[in-house]
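hiii, so i know i said id send this last week but things got crazy w the move. better late than never?? heres the sequnce for the chain we talked about at the cafe, plus the structure i predicted for it. fair warning i was half asleep when i ran it
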Amino acid sequence: MRAADAIVFASTIHTLDPQKPGATALAIKDGRIAAVGSPADVEPFRGTSTVIHDFGDATLVPGLNDSHTHVVFGLELARGVQLTDLGPLAEVQRIIADAATAANPGEWVIGWGLDPNLFNQTGFSGRLFDDATGSVPMFLRMRDGHSAIVNSAALAAAGITGPVDFPDESLIDVDDDGTPTGYIVEFSAMDLVTNVIPQESFEIRAERLRTLLNGMAGVGITSTHVMDFAEGSAELVTHLETLGELPLRLRFSPMVNAGASLNELEEVAALQGTGGRRWRVEGVKFFIDGTIDNGSAWLEQPDTHGENHESVWTDPADFQKALRFFVERGIPTATHAIGDQGVRYVLEALEASGEARHLASHRIEHIETIPDEIVERFAELGVAASMQPVHGTHHTRADRSDNWSVRLGPERAARGWRCRDLRDAGVTVALGSDWPITPYDPRAMMADSILRRPVESPEIEPVQPEQALTALMALEGYTSHAAAAAGLSHESGSISLGKRADLTVFARDPLAVTPEELARTSVVTTLVDGIPTR
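okay and structure toks below
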């Protein structure tokens, strides 16, 4: 028997493997788990060159996976002034005015994380910032990432003078006389503006990505499902791999936009399996709708504003054809579906794909409001749910005074982020952050999913506390269920023989502390391929 490359000891090891749920030692060979059990069980694997990692009283768990991020596309989404949770509107206007004053000639004021609730009294309009910015173009992305507020100078720079026709349901909002208001919805519309914003250099983007990935590893993340393959992604991660190993694995799933041609579908299919040492392209990402906050989600009935009643696909039947293209080729799919009708339609499309859907894993992202029968359909069809309950804890309120809840009305708002109902129905529920829409720290994400309120705000009343997850369910959402949602249970998600030696080391046991303590628990290190990242 060849000696192990490394042997790891810790007072507690939560394997999440039902065949061997607890352990205190493990051996690692060639980046894989070679033995799990007691110190006596791994002793035969000790050799003269075996590295010993003794973490003492720490707790090991399978490496945490964030199931929904945008680590490269997010570099663009998270440019400029962070406006997350800032308000009221007058304060944001002051911050933007200061940024405009400090801007050099030719520069734009860029911000992100803007709260749609700031506009409850005024309505969405970029003109509200014209006095603050003057002739300096401004682009402020809403916190949902699917809409933006731009000032008059930005509209002029982009050459937008009236309504624009798009191949999907993107929108340039206009007044009754056809004059743009400065509110733009969905990516095709936003691209008209972002395409004229001066871009960052490759070197700056690479450094920002390196810093981001190191930050994610520092809070316990060993892998993430990247829900896009934005332009430049391959070049950036390849460049970083020339400098050393990535601190976490990246699984990119390219976006398939509404109205994509057959040639575009074939190009995405051809990317499958490409990659580097710790990154690869696997799966595809669809959108069936937008977001409730900006009126572009797909509900069975319109919201209280008469909006949120259409798919972003002008002809949803084209989505079914595109989805089937990948399903029949055994390529995993993930579909953004927020409204109840959007979720229902995707489930029906997967069912209509027949037995071919069993060739790969398929999942739905977000799932913000669904009735009981849709919960049951997830279980019947074996479709995974990939959810971000932190969106509910941070962006909605128990008194239903927030924009999301007002648009939906009491009945549909009460069906929000049904993580526990889905788990109790036997559905795979993967958890994630959707970074940069919300912060990526999994400790806070897990704590929020247990508390159903922001862990840092004990004064806030929980939203739908009946949907709270247990500590074990929350951990599974970042480990075993995350792997299952991507069809990767054979290589990750538990500490089991033959699986990747990707591990997260907590200073305290995440299953034995309170949610508040979990959010503050130190991450000692992570291991990828059995090698500590710090």
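btw The chain has a mean pLDDT of 96. thought thatd interest u
miss u guys!!
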